[in-house]
Amino acid sequence: MMADQPTRHTAGTITDDDLDALYDVLERHERRSDAWQTSAEASAAERDGAYQERAQLLAWLAALAPAVLAPATDVDEHGWHLLYLTTPAGQLSWHIHPRDLAYFEHVERAEADDPRAQWDGHSTAEKYDRIGQLAAVAGCSCSILRTGPGRHLPECPNRGSSSR
Description:
Oligomer: single chain
Number of strands: 4
Distance between the termini: 58 Å
Order of helices and strands: HEEEEHH
Radius of gyration: 26 Å
Number of domains: 2
Number of helices: 3
């Protein structure tokens, strides 16, 4: 008999030892469930913190480039918005969670059907390629913005090797 699978008993044949074994199995499963829940909550908090940080950076970018914020019609959950930035390299857009809208008080609001709030069809890769083009115009020759993270790239000659 496996520890987690006790023998089947009828009401009149279960012993105190069998009952204790069943309670032990239940307790082990509850501990595993609690540990999983704690881990899932920590992961969600970390993810939400990263999205909050991203929202703050996007709010700063929206102060530097023409931008509008419009309701996101492609998300079923109420309150989501889309941030559209207009740059010399083309449109950049991101979904904004309802909890992060306060960072965008300075951004003009638009209706979802406003011409300035129409997605131009760019992919995520194209969006970050456009950001790389903007960085190149700004004088940074780092290819990380054009090639993505996780690749070995030389240090940018426009900044010191100790800076980030």
